[in-house]
Backbone:
């Protein structure tokens, strides 16, 4: 059963880029794994005119978030390139710009950013999680990589306890984030109950539990999984 919370996870005034990534990054990884389960190793083909990306016989509607040029090491938001993509395909990117302007997040409101390929993945991750979309994909088109956001009922959720544990473990290990914020946010965004304590926190997934220990500085000391007994 999904839980309701008095204070939902959302971007707040004063949130830095790192805080926003901490809040939404794990959920984005969760969504990407769902997408990977659907498309497997198939390479996507983008059709801008039809506004879809195809993985063999699977067609998914897209929004253009932005693109990356390796030569210049730059990310360009699609909202600054309406002449290339047209108005319909950049609606999600425009939403990200509005969020950047409302909460003064330069990474969302600057038309171009000095970036590497991993930075672009991070921007796309945050976008799909913040906007409630189902995944993203990077399409190589000559000298640029176009990042598209995907929303489709064909992408099924895997809500296993093991997946939840593994996603959080991967996220806190591979990204520079605030683990306490990340664990609380991921738990709540998935609709589970979060119980904080002095040096650990618990996520209640039905009758199962994920327990994460923290140091005084908020780093993760251990992750324990207690599965519901049959």
Residues:
């Amino acid at each position: 059963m999904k839980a309701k919370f008095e204070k939902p996870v959302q971007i707040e005034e004063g949130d830095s880029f790192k805080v926003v990534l901490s809040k939404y990054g794990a959920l984005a990884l969760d969504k990407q794994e769902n997408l990977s389960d659907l498309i497997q190793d198939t390479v996507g083909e983008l059709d801008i005119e039809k506004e879809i990306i195809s993985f063999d016989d699977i067609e998914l509607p897209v929004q253009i978030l932005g693109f990356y040029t390796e030569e210049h090491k730059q990310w360009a938001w699609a909202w600054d390139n309406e002449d290339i993509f047209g108005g319909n395909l950049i609606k999600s990117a425009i939403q990200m710009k509005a969020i950047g302007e409302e909460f003064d997040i330069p990474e969302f409101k600057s038309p171009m950013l000095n970036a590497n390929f991993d930075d672009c993945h991070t921007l796309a991750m945050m976008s799909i999680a913040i906007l409630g979309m189902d995944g993203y994909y990077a399409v190589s088109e000559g000298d640029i990589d176009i990042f598209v956001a995907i929303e489709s009922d064909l992408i099924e959720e895997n809500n296993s306890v093991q997946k939840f544990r593994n996603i959080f473990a991967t996220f806190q290990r591979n990204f520079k984030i605030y683990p306490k914020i990340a664990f609380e946010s991921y738990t709540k965004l998935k609709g589970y109950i979060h119980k904080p304590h002095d040096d650990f926190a618990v996520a209640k997934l039905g009758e199962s539990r994920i327990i994460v220990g923290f140091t005084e500085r908020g780093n993760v000391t251990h992750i324990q999984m207690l599965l519901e007994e049959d």
